[in-house]
Design a protein that fits this description.
The protein is about 35% helix and about 15% strand. The chain has about 425 residues and is of the alpha/beta class. Strands 1, 2, 3, 4, 5, 6, 7, 8, 9, 10, 11 and 12 form a twelve-stranded mixed beta sheet that branches. The protein is globular, with a radius of gyration of 32 Å.
Amino acid sequence: MKALGKFLTIMVLLSFLAACSAPATSAPETAPVATDAPVVTQAPELTAAEQWAQANGVGPYQPETDDWAAIEAAAKKEGKVTVYANSGGVEDLQEAWTALYPDIVLDAADTDGIDTKMQAEQESGNVVGDIWFNSDGHILFGKFVPNQWMWWYVPRDVSIPELTADYPFAIARHSVDVIGYNNKIYPDGCPITNIWQVTEEKYTGKFFMEDPVANVSQMAKLATIVQFSDEMATAYKDLYGKEWTEDELAQPDASGLKVENAGYLWIKKLAYNSPVSLDDGDMVDAAFAGLDLPEGEEPGFGWTGYSSYKDTLKGELNMAPCFGLKPAVGVFKTSFLGIANNAPHPNAAKLFIKFALSEAGYEPWNKIGTYPAVVGLPTHEDNLSLEEIMPHVWEMNPIFDWENVSKVRDFWAASLLTAE
């Protein structure tokens, strides 16, 4: 049996060697047969909004050159442009506009609830407003752009260095909101040096601002406080010599309200200190810097526009910014221009944007606390330069504000409730 096993093994090896030594046969040289049709890449189909934008040369479909003669001729046929703005200055443009375009009616007014109004028009399909002229960038970029309710248009001969692919909308101007004090009662300067001081018992009921619940712009400013929570934490420690997490209100309350960072802590402490929410900026200014305030009382502070200082210079107000306040005295805002999707007067809208970015169009806002974004436009002679003002303020971030403003609003409302 062992001999048979050896014999079979030898035979298998010989057979294997014989197979390996046989000449190889080459495969026939024939091309492989295609089994699939060639892949054809098709351009994505445009949405209805994109088709409108393409037909009207706005947004990513704006031509490389602007044919202003053709645009003006078409605008005259349209006969009108409707502008929704969050500033009364727009109403001062009538004379300059009419001098340039007498055949085109400018329907422009200081408009409340621009985002709500324009959203309703987009959703109903009954678009009336042509132009968004508003500083609520968080709503513009967070809601209107994703829904293709708004398109950008920037004249090719206008230089706005800040424009990027992420932020392509024309910028009409920047403005500064500050924490102000009464410079008549405190002629030697702002009585506080740190923003946390407005939350202290001494100033209970003495911080005035526009109602954040009713005013989306004010709520976005609170979101900016949260954005710069690290700086708020440093300021807290500088003032009190301890970490913000050691503050009594930093701990979750009975409702389970959690304080995530120093920015939220400041908001909670402010809510617990009985702040006064008012309907508009004029009411805010009158509350802490009005001429008729009694000198023996603590006037408190107001979150107001730096532009109000012009009224102080005219003797109509006693407001001055708390420059030097740590970690910041206020916020740096941006006012955007956009053309509504399905705007009934798209060519007149283009003319208005061109006009608004000119010296004549900027004139109503050429005052203290406001800065042009367009290269070459004048800055008010009494303004601090941007190099001087920017270290004192925080620039608002539309995307951060949009992503956080709802959470901040809920936190603010809950803090007010638990403070009672």
